[in-house]
Each structure stands twice: as C-alpha cells, then as structure tokens.
C-alpha cells in the first residue's frame, strides 16, 4: 500500500480538490527453482514465502511442503527454491504447462480446459453450515485492510469447517491471494480436506484447479462462477459456491456438503 | 453465456431451490502469426477478430492495422494472422517479451515495470467534460448484457470526447475486453488521439500500457488504480481516472484534460 497525491472531482460542487489517497502496490516477484528461473509473478509485495510455496503447490509443481529442501526469500523480490532430489521438476513442468504461452482470462498460469476429465476426485465428506459460509464471506471485508483502503486487491481466506479462520491473504491478483492463503496453510500443516476457501474474486477454471490440486473440498466466492470453473468443480468433486452475499448464495456443484 | 442448473440457498427460509441461471463462458483462443503459435488466450468466445487485432496492437506486435496482410478466424477458436513482409516479428516479440514466463496480477502478458521511462509521450491535448466521463462509466452497465446476466465479465468501451460510443466489448478477462474494444475501433479506423477508454476493471500497469501503446490519451475506470498503473500513466502522459462512479471520480494523472 502506498500513498499518492490525487485530484478528486465531484460533479455536485464541480470542484477539483487535491487529496492524499492509498493505492495498492504491484511488484514483480521472480521465483527460481533449482537455480533456474521458473516464473515471474506480478503481485502485492507481502507474504512472498507463502506465495511461492502456495503457487508451487496449487500449480502441481510440488506435491507437499515435504518436497521443499530450501526456500530463500531475497531482497528485491526474488525467491530461490531448492526441491528435494527425488522431485523430477522437468517432468512436472511438462505435465502442467503444455502450452508455450498462455494468457488467462484473469491470470494464473495453466489452461484449465485440458484438465476436465483428468482430475483425481475429492472424496472428503465434510459438511459446512450455510451460515458459516455466508459469515466467512462477510468477514473477508472486515479483515482486509488493504482492500478497504485501496479497493485495488483481492482477498482469500481458508477456514476450518466450524468457521475458524486459519489463513488470510490479500493481493492485487486473485490467483496470488489464493496461492498465499494455500501457502500459509500448508506451512502450518493444515489438513485441506477439513477446510474451505473463501475469496473475493470470480471462480474461473484456473482458480478451481488450484483448490482441487490441494484437495480443498469447498470453494466459495462473493463473485460469480465462470462456466470453466463449474466444469472443473463437477469433475473434481468440489463444492462450488458463488455470490455468497448477505443471506444468499448460489451452489453450482455438490450442494450435499452444505447444511441448511 | 450459457445456462446452467444451480441450487440457490436463502438463509431467511433455510431452503435450497433449484434454478436455471446464466454463467459467462470461457474458451481457449489460439493465435498463430505467420504459421507459428504465438499465444493462447482464455476468453469469452465472441468478437475474436477484434480480440486478435486489438491484442497485437496493444502489445506492440503490430503497429497499425495496415501491417496485417490476412486475418482468418477458424472454427474451434483459432486465428491465423499473416503480417506484412516488412514486419520483423522476432524483433518485436523480443522487444516486448523479455521474460520467459510471466504471471500478471490479473493476466495480460507483459511486465509493465520495465517500461517506466521508456514510453513515447502522449501529446494529445484533447479535453473531456467530467460529466461525459461519469456518464460513460454509468453507461457501461446499461450496455453490458452478459455482465448484467452473469456478473462474470468485464466491460470496456471507447468513446469520442463528446461521449459518442465508438466500440464496446465484454470478456471474462479485463485485458481481453480492452483488447476487443481497441481492435474494433482500429478496424473502423478510429483516431485514438481523439478518444477515451472506459472500463470496469482495475487500472494496473499492463492495462495502462495497452492504452498508451495505441496512444489513447484518457483511461477511466469504475474500479481502483494500482501503483504500477499510475507510474506508467505519469510516464506516458496519459490521464488516469479511477472510481468513476455516480458524481465522483479520482484523477491520478494529468487532470488538465478533464473540464469541470
């Protein structure tokens, strides 16, 4: 978050007035794996260790935190990761990045369409009360300081099924916010099978893919679901909820995990 | 836009009810330039010619529509582009894609930070009445059918300085919506120096870069500006406006183009 001088205009008074306002920051973050540049992510420059760990887990490059040998966050937005020797990095990258260059509808890094029909099923039979989901969505705003002050970031949080907050992250990118929340939880050895994830951003295929890869059984959002997200959630056995606002929500898949 | 069956839950009645609802679609779109795969974009499957043309212009790969020899949109979301022989494609790609893999805060395809200090200045001295900007933002919702029905897409529109609507696009990605609006205007030989662009999404560096590359002098949004967007707008001489809602707006750079 950074302060900038801006000019506010109000049509009622027809006046221009100079103000100091807060804006969200965005910086490049370079991740190197086993000494090779892996990816550069534009993100909010906070919780970078969580972002790196969460990104590798949610993209299928690392299967658990046990596969990390070393994680070093350097000044100037660089992260050096060493994976355990038994991880065949080239093979995993090949598996998960089949296209040479992809631009997603709203970032991320893999094309979700190719995964329909290929995801392992989430078998968790946890159940969550509808009011716990609605409350988790309501709380996003309350805990999100940068969001309130700048309006320029996305929010993601991981909760236990009873509504206990386990991890929380803000980022200019909705994918990064999800990665940071996943990374923070993984570093704390959270069991994802007993959690749900709530976010502010839309539920596109790539967001659903991230949750499905770490086997989070329920994904809820304040915003809309996109058809690619619904297709993948159906396929992965993941409960997908959109427009969780006030007293209402839309359940796109597997409503049996939600209790009235 | 596609119809899906969903379950609505309302805490007031504690009832689950099955409904048919509209969701936004997202499909891969593969662009080939001179017979080589250039990029795959996940997008709303509409106005694909406009998207391809706008994307190449806003990313600096083509400098004007005069550089296109042929544009063929194929079934199944593929576009084959032939550029004029005098365009050195490899050189332009090198110039604009210096990193091997980049994930943006909310998609797009280039890291905007490296352009600060390197952009040609926008010298257009057009001026627009503040109420024309506010009205352009208000109209986005009115003209955006998919947005109203699904809540799952972004909107971008290009207006003449007197408020005449010139081009309009919706897409699951805010970058794609901007590209489609730019592409549609370019195909209609619009003079960008006498226009402004209004969008629903946040003003990050990569969005500002797209407008700056085609020399649109004013960029307005319903949403917030990110610091990277402000830095690039300052550098490019572009007027950047955020939170254009109701009677108010925040002007981040070059307010002299806005008349009270």
Word description of this protein:
In chain A, the strands form four sheets. Chain A has a six-stranded mixed beta sheet, with helices on both faces. Chain A has a four-stranded mixed beta sheet with strand order 4-3-6-5, with helices on one face. The first copy, chain A, has a two-stranded antiparallel ribbon with strand order 1-2. Chain A is globular and about 65 Å long. In chain A, 28% of the residues lie in helices and 34% in strands. The longest helix of chain A is centred in the middle third of the chain and has 14 residues, at 130-143. Chain A is of the alpha/beta class. Chain A has helices at 48-58, 89-96, 130-143, 145-150, 174-187, 205-213, 227-236, and strands at residues 2-10, 15-23, 27-33, 36-43, 68-74, 78-83, 102-103, 128-129, 154-160, 165-171, 195-199, 218-221, 239-245, 248-253, 258-259. Chain A is built from seven helices and 15 strands. At the A-B interface, strand 1, strand 2, strand 4, strand 7 and helix 3 of A face strand 1, strand 2, strand 4, strand 7 and helix 3 of B. Strand 7 (102-103) of chain A pairs parallel with strand 4 of chain B, so a sheet runs across the interface.
List keywords for this structure.
homodimer; 260 residues; alpha/beta; 6-stranded mixed sheet; 4-stranded mixed sheet; 34% strand; globular
Fold topology:
The structure is a homodimer of 260-residue chains.
Chain A: E1 2-10, E2 15-23, E3 27-33, E4 36-43, H1 48-58, E5 68-74, E6 78-83, H2 89-96, E7 102-103, E8 128-129, H3 130-143, H4 145-150, E9 154-160, E10 165-171, H5 174-187, E11 195-199, H6 205-213, E12 218-221, H7 227-236, E13 239-245, E14 248-253, E15 258-259
Parallel strand pairs in A: 3-6, 8-15, 11-12, 12-13
Antiparallel strand pairs in A: 1-2, 3-4, 5-6, 9-10, 9-11, 13-14
Helix pairs in contact in A: 1-5, 5-6, 6-7
């Amino acid at each position: 978050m950074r302060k900038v001088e801006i000019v506010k205009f109000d049509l009622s008074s027809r006046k221009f007035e100079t103000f100091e306002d807060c804006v969200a920051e965005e910086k490049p973050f370079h991740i190197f794996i086993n000494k090779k540049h892996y990816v550069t992510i534009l993100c909010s420059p906070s919780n970078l260790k969580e972002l790196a760990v969460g990104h590798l887990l949610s993209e299928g490059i690392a299967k658990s935190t046990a596969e990390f040998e070393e994680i070093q966050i350097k000044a100037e937005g660089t992260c050096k990761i060493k994976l355990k020797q038994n991880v065949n990095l080239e093979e995993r990258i090949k598996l998960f990045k089949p296209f040479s260059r992809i631009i997603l509808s709203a970032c991320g890094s893999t094309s979700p369409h190719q995964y329909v029909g290929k995801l392992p099923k989430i078998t968790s039979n946890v159940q969550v009360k509808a009011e716990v989901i609605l409350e988790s969505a309501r709380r996003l705003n309350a805990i999100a300081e940068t969001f309130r002050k700048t309006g320029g970031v996305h929010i993601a949080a991981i909760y236990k099924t009873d509504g206990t907050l386990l991890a929380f992250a803000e980022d200019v990118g909705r994918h990064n916010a999800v990665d940071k929340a996943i990374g923070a939880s993984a570093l704390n050895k959270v069991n994802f099978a007993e959690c749900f994830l709530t976010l502010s951003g839309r539920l596109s295929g790539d967001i659903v893919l991230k949750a499905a890869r770490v086997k989070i059984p329920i994904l809820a959002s304040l915003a809309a679901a996109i058809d690619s997200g619904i297709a993948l959630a159906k396929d992965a056995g993941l409960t997908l909820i959109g427009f969780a606002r006030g007293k209402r929500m839309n359940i796109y898949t597997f409503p049996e995990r939600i209790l009235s």
